[in-house]
Design brief:
Strand content: 15-25%
CATH architecture of the largest domain: 3-Layer(aba) Sandwich
CATH topology of the largest domain: Rossmann fold
Family: Belongs to the universal stress protein A family.
Radius of gyration: 19 Å
InterPro entries: Rossmann-like_a/b/a_fold, Universal_stress_UspA, UspA
Pfam family, one: Usp
Protein name: Universal stress protein
CATH superfamily of the largest domain: HUPs
Largest sheet: 10 strands, mixed
Shape: elongated
Strand order of the largest sheet: 3-2-1-4-5-12-11-6-7-10
Order of helices and strands: EHEHEHEHHEEHEEEHEHEHE
């Protein structure tokens, strides 16, 4: 472990993949904005004993070194911690979420063969974590005025989820990105009609005049809408009520080469 054990860190699951390193880079920027430590965590089945020669431990240590090097190269003013922990990755990260500001996981997108992996790790963490969870495609894109990749927020006929809206607006402000409000259909609620969506978005524009907000009626679930949407997307912000959409947002998709193949998802929760 580098640094001291502190509450409120941004925690990243590190598994040795390029996707995890990309997530660590994204999380470093997020931790610097929040002014909290960045903690890189690798979970292994092997006992983590000092001086041990287990291959799983060696792999975990190397994975953490690689991710740390990638973060240090960014020169962000953020305290960096690493932890090699014995246990199942999902369980380790869910436990870590009790004291974390945010949990981050990398994903290269979910094909048929990889769906089991996401289901057993990222999706489980998204469902059961005690803090917000970001699942990042290709490390996540930061957006910005030049990039014009939108922060997407699905809007249903239910009472407005203030936490989801506030989270999307905050991210848009930090990155200088526009917000795309998508009126979506949900089985238990039906369709949100455009007039009601427009009325809600008008209120958001009054509260957040510094954020560009566009409204579109999706007439589908958010995952179905994204499957046919071709403009660049930085991040989709959803609430706990829509956590079952995570697999559909991250993948698999029938249009593997469309621009939102780089789309990431953030599950907002208190």
């Amino acid at each position: 472990m580098e640094g001291s054990e502190q509450f409120g860190a941004v925690v990243v699951g590190i598994d040795g993949s390029d996707a995890a390193i990309g997530a660590a880079r994204w999380a470093a920027h997020e931790a610097s904005i929040r002014g909290v430590p960045l903690r890189l965590v690798h979970a292994t089945d092997a006992p983590c004993e000092p001086g041990g020669l287990d291959m799983g431990v060696e792999y975990g240590e190397q994975s953490l070194r690689s991710a740390s090097a990638a973060v240090n190269a960014l020169n962000f003013d953020v305290a960096l911690e690493t932890a090699l922990v014995s246990g199942d990755p999902s369980t380790v990260l869910i436990d870590a979420s009790r004291d974390a500001d945010l949990i981050c996981l990398g994903s290269v997108g979910i094909g048929r063969l990889a769906a089991t992996l996401l289901g057993s790790t990222a999706e489980e963490v998204a469902r059961k974590a005690h803090c917000p969870v970001a699942i990042l495609r290709r490390g996540g894109r930061r957006g910005g005025p030049a990039d014009r990749a939108s922060v997407v927020v699905p809007v249903t006929a239910a009472q407005e989820d203030k936490l989801v809206i506030d989270t999307a607006m905050q991210i848009a402000r930090h990155t200088g990105s526009p917000v795309l409000a998508v009126g979506v259909w949900r089985k238990d609620l039906g369709e949100l009609f455009y007039d009601e969506l427009d009325e809600r978005v008008t209120g958001w524009r009054q509260r957040c005049p510094d954020v560009t907000i566009r409204a579109v009626s999706g007439r589908a679930t958010i995952a179905e809408f994204l499957a046919d949407y071709t403009e660049p997307i930085q991040l989709v912000v959803i609430g706990e009520a829509d956590v079952d959409q995570v697999l559909g947002i991250v993948g698999p998709h029938s249009h593997a080469l469309i621009d939102h193949g780089e789309c990431s998802v953030l599950v907002a929760r208190r």
